[in-house]
Amino acid sequence: AGAFSVNPGTNALSGYDWGYERLSGALVMTEVGTKTDYTMTAYPGRASLTGFFNTADHDDNFKTVFGTSKGLNPGAPVLQKSGTSGIVLTGTQTVWRADGGLVANPHPTAVSLYTGTGYSFDPTVPIRFNSFVGVRLDAPDQSRPNDSYGLKMNWQRLSENYTQFLSDANFISGGSGAPYSRDKFVFEANAHFDVGAGVIIEPVVQYVVNPNSFWNPFTARRAKDGFYAGATLVVPLGTLLGLAPG
């Protein structure tokens, strides 16, 4: 359990603005869970349940202070709502090992299933529900124990009044204003490659169904179903420079 200050304005500050904080609330989080690994059992798993409550005010999904659509009236002050809360449930379980679990190996060739679900109790926040499920193959080659391949499906549901805001914002920006689907799906193939010396490459390919303008509401353009490809490169400078253990 823990409590943390909410400082949404500090993202625009440099790291040298000492003491410049305007607290807008507190975030309280509590988590319970269990975890095992290959030193404890042949088929380890993990499960956790997290609850949170944020006391900070946030923008209403749809209304201005005058009760009008904030999408159709972008210059009007947005109605503020107080506090939000929700839960997050995650789990992972190893379901198959190439050695049948008969060999003591901290990095066996194994298949794991994993899932997670987050739900907001407050209908005035944009994302009401997010859930994912996936399968991962670890150490497909025993000479490369840290590599993995995976498949994942993510389902995200927006609050109904937030999709109405997106439609209004699209219309006022010159678009059609057609309704957006509340449900977005992402189908993903991913991999994790340990290059050596702590350097990691993680490529990913996704196909997105029912995308929306969440990150850029006031645009006339409407996103279409399609592919995304990218990669993450992790370079531990401390390890490469000898400042941290490899």
UniProtKB/TrEMBL annotation:
**Could you tell me the superkingdom of the organism this chain comes from?**
Bacteria
**One Pfam family of this chain:** OprB
Q: Which GO terms describe its cellular component?
A: membrane
What is one process in the GO biological process aspect for this record?
carbohydrate transport
Q: Which InterPro entries match?
A: Carb-sel_porin_OprB, OprB_Porin, OprB_sf
A GO molecular function assigned to this protein is: porin activity
- Record's family? Belongs to the OprB family.
Query: What is the protein named?
Result: Carbohydrate-selective porin OprB
Q: What organism is this sequence from?
A: Methylorubrum thiocyanatum
Q: What is the lineage of its organism?
A: Bacteria, Pseudomonadati, Pseudomonadota, Alphaproteobacteria, Hyphomicrobiales
